[in-house]
TrEMBL record:
Enzyme Commission number(s): 1.-.-.-
Keyword set, alphabetical order: Oxidoreductase
Keyword Membrane set for record: no
Domain Luciferase-like: 1-294
GO MF terms, alphabetically ordered: oxidoreductase activity
EC class name: oxidoreductase
Protein name listed in UniProt: LLM class F420-dependent oxidoreductase
Pfam family, one: Bac_luciferase
Gene3D superfamilies: Luciferase-like domain (3.20.20.30)
InterPro entries assigned: F420-G6PD/mer (IPR050564), F420_Rv3093c (IPR022526), Luciferase-like_dom (IPR011251), Luciferase-like_sf (IPR036661)
Native organism taxonomy: Bacteria, Bacillati, Actinomycetota, Actinomycetes, Kitasatosporales
Length: 318
């Protein structure tokens, strides 16, 4: 099992500079890669560049970036620009995001998201490998001046069309907050899709909330993340089967985040992540590996563990 670290995954109430502290710690502890997620606060490419300047070794991945708000060239240029100023390999992760983010934050229409993802992934894959001297895009009089960024193309996927896009174009497919049972199903679907197009399956990674020996504040931080998935098809069934049906029903009725967090017991934090004492977390890692996961991208809870130091230190690479 490979391990990487997510400097920032989604919006919460943590300090805005916390991602840099997480990244610096991950680099010091020997993790190989840091993800710079994108949201209403952070631009992923700017954050990736800042992380690269503040660290010594880690490879960088920017995103997932919503494909509805940036064109393929901007995505590839962003990765190449970060690589040029940091001297690191830089990858790009693509996602469809949500209507709340694409339309509510960016003011862009979120239409045909699966088709836009497929078109963007195909174009970005080609652009990430363009060499200096080639047209910046096919047919352009402008020439590429920056070297290829050298990192992987990752596609965040869950539905069948996104999985097919990952199988056809990506080096890695990304899942978010999944149980081992979901991993097993998605691994099979990815392998079948890759076989259909005659490609070696991409590696399979998952962003998983992580907290070793968590304090109550860390559990609450993870429950905030889980609350956003209670109405998502494929997730609601998992949480209902785990005994949290009341929270799922409240979410379907439109309950706000605070109500949902109160409805989720602390043990819900372990449903789709790495939460508990070190022994329990190690056993959970084994379950994910057995299910077919290749990489765990740790999303450390930081609310009562600044920079996720306790968790990242306990799980650092051997």
């Amino acid at each position: 099992m490979d391990f990487s670290v997510v400097a920032v995954a989604r919006e919460d109430d943590s300090p805005v500079e916390e991602p840099l502290r997480v990244a610096v710690l991950a680099d010091r502890l020997g993790y190989r890669e840091v993800w710079a997620g994108e949201g209403p606060t952070w631009d992923s490419f700017v954050l990736a560049a800042a992380i690269g300047r503040a660290t010594e070794r880690v490879a960088l991945t920017a995103g997932p970036v919503p494909v509805s708000v940036r064109d393929p060239y901007s995505l590839a240029r962003g990765a190449a620009s970060v690589a040029a100023v940091t001297g690191r390999a830089v990858g790009v992760a693509l996602g469809t995001s949500s209507k709340r983010v694409v339309e509510g934050v960016h003011g862009r229409p979120r239409v045909r998201p699966a088709a836009v993802m497929e078109e963007t992934a195909a174009a970005v894959r080609e652009l990430l490998h363009a060499e200096p001297g080639e047209p910046v895009v096919p047919g352009s009089p402008f020439r590429r001046r920056l070297a290829p960024p050298g990192g992987p193309l990752t596609v965040a996927a869950f539905g069948d069309r996104a999985i097919a896009t990952a199988a056809a174009h990506a080096d890695r497919m990304l899942l978010d907050i999944v149980s081992p049972e979901q991993v097993r199903d998605l691994r099979a679907r990815l392998d079948a899709a890759a076989e259909k197009v005659g490609r070696t399956p991409p590696t399979l990674a998952a962003w998983l909330p992580a907290a070793v020996d968590p304090e109550p504040a860390s559990l609450a931080q993870i429950l905030v993340s889980i609350a956003g998935y209670l109405t998502v098809p494929g997730y609601s069934d998992v949480f209902t089967a785990a005994g949290f049906g009341e929270a799922v029903r409240l979410a379907a009725a439109g309950a706000d985040r605070d109500t949902l967090v109160r409805a989720l017991p602390p043990e819900a934090a372990a449903t789709a992540g790495l939460v508990g004492d070190l022994g329990a977390v190690r056993a959970r890692i084994d379950a994910y590996a057995e299910a077919g996961l290749d990489e765990i991208a740790l999303v450390p809870a930081t609310a009562a563990d600044p920079a996720g130091e306790r968790t990242l230190t306990a799980l650092r690479p051997a």
